[in-house]
From TrEMBL:
Name of the protein described by the UniProt record: Nitroreductase family protein
Family the UniProt entry places it in: Belongs to the nitroreductase family.
InterPro entries reported for this sequence: Nitroreductase, Nitroreductase-like
UniProt domain Nitroreductase: residue ranges: 14-188
Keywords, sorted A to Z: Oxidoreductase
Pfam families associated with the record: Nitroreductase (PF00881)
UniProt KW Oxidoreductase keyword: yes
Length: 208
């Protein structure tokens, strides 16, 4: 049987981590907004959607950020930097989220009340380190969607975990419950990314 690759598979394989960008190319803010809206279809723990975004387009601010991000060139030359953050107080939005689900007819009232109570009671009691792990995981899920959607729109990206998170939080005056997770450079490639190999499935997967 011949298996035809889907458009999603094509985008997945065409997405590469690009580090050289056309610094004169700027993505319209409306498209960046559309990208983030689409990306929020990602799943999250108890659907609490803890991701927050700081989209940095200003050239002077990007130059400052480059120093915080280990002098990575793409921080300054890409069209924008999408900082993906995690809110460890995401459970405070449980009522609004599940009430909206109820109003849209996705759940009944009993389920709404149950999910609100369960979410608040569970997450509000968790240690900060556990909450950080949860929001970091969820930020990873939406970050991958951002990069795939960007490629589908004709743009290139590279994720960056190597930056001074404490300095970032201080520079952008983040509240204590907002955790910097990853920076994503987005723009038009000025040079192709390197290809990279993958470990064979037999070494990373076991079927039982």
């Amino acid at each position: 049987m011949t298996v035809t690759k889907s458009s999603l598979t094509k985008v997945m394989h065409e997405r590469k981590s690009v580090r050289k960008y056309d610094e004169n190319f700027k993505i319209p803010q409306q498209q960046l907004e559309e990208l983030l809206v689409e990306a929020t279809s990602a799943p999250s723990s108890s659907n609490l959607q803890p991701w927050r975004f700081l989209v940095i387009q200003d050239e002077a601010v990007k130059k400052e950020l480059r120093a915080i991000a280990n002098n990575q060139e793409q921080v300054e030359t890409s069209s924008a930097i999408i900082a993906v953050l995690g809110d460890t107080k995401m459970y405070e939005n449980a009522e609004a989220i599940y009430t909206k689900n109820f109003e849209l007819g996705y759940i009944n009232e009993a389920t709404k009340d149950l999910m609100i109570n369960n979410s608040i009671n569970l997450y509000s009691q968790l240690p900060q380190e556990v909450l950080k792990n949860i929001v970091t995981f969820d930020a990873g899920l939406i970050s991958m969607q951002i990069m795939l959607l960007a490629k589908d729109m004709g743009y290139d990206t590279v994720p960056m975990g190597g930056f001074n998170k404490e300095a970032f939080a201080q520079r952008f005056e983040l509240a204590d419950h907002i955790v910097p997770v990853i920076l994503i450079a987005i723009g038009k490639a000025a040079a192709p990314a390197y290809n990279s190999s993958r470990i064979e499935l037999e070494h990373i997967a076991k079927f039982i």
